[in-house]
Amino acid sequence: MPTHIHKGNDDVKGSSKKDAGRPAPEAAQTAPAEQQTAAPATAAAEGAVVAPPGELEQIKERLLRLQADFDNFRKRTLREKNELFQKANEDIMLELLPVLDHAELGLKHAEEQGVPAAYVDGLRMVADQLRGVLQKFGLAPIETTGRVFNPGEHEGIACQPSDSVPEGCIILATRTGYRLGNAVLRPAQVVVSSGPSMPDPEAGAGDEPK
């Protein structure tokens, strides 16, 4: 009985020695797997298609053209946005200018007619506040008195002689003109000087002694 058990132990030991000298299955399979992984990558690198230089230049030109088109589109969109904003401001200003004109005319008439100071001050406050709001958005009056007549900013409604105002200069403005930014929103209506009045020759001839 003991002899049989000892023999079995020898078999186990011999089997262990054989397994120790044999390579592990995982280690044996690692090298082929790495070789299989490296092989497709090497084949892909060797089979990569390189575009000819002429085609690369065409692609670069197309990209530059697309970039320039996008930059032009961005600038055009910004310009159209500003133009739309400017047009909206102009429309609102043109609707409010008659209100400002009437407020200023009412203030002038109240001062001339001797209206109580409380009413005059109230009208002045309304006109000043409205004028201030419009100026905040770029509205500015066009200067007239003593200036040389400019058809781009002034609208001549009359011409009369003047001994104090040179010919071609503005004597007075009958309606205030306004500029919105750099553009003329409404020209000023003005009276232009025609120069010193000329003596009447017939009146001078009648004064001569007979």
How would you describe this structure in keywords?
disordered N terminus, three-stranded mixed beta sheet, three-stranded antiparallel beta sheet, 61% helix, 5 helices
Low-confidence stretches: 1-9, 12-18
**Cα distance spanning the termini:** 185 Å
Number of H- or I-type helical stretches: 5
Beta-strand percentage range: 5-15%
Largest sheet: 3 strands, antiparallel
DSSP strand tally: 6
Structural class by sheet pairing and helices:
alpha+beta
Calculate Rg over CA atoms: 49 Å
Descriptive notes:
With 210 residues, the protein is of the alpha+beta class. Among the domains are: 73-137; 139-198, Roll (Nucleotide Exchange Factor Grpe, Chain A, domain 2), CATH 2.30.22.10. It contains five helices and six strands. The chain has helices spanning 2-21, 25-46, 53-112, 117-136, 201-206; strands at 139-141, 154-160, 170-175, 178-180, 183-186, 188-193. The chain has a three-stranded antiparallel beta sheet. A three-stranded mixed beta sheet has the order 2-6-3, with no helix packed on it. A hairpin with a 2-residue loop joins strand 4 (178-180) and strand 5. Helix 3 packs antiparallel against helix 4 (117-136). The protein is elongated and about 100 Å long. Mean pLDDT is 79; it is low at 1-9 and 12-18.
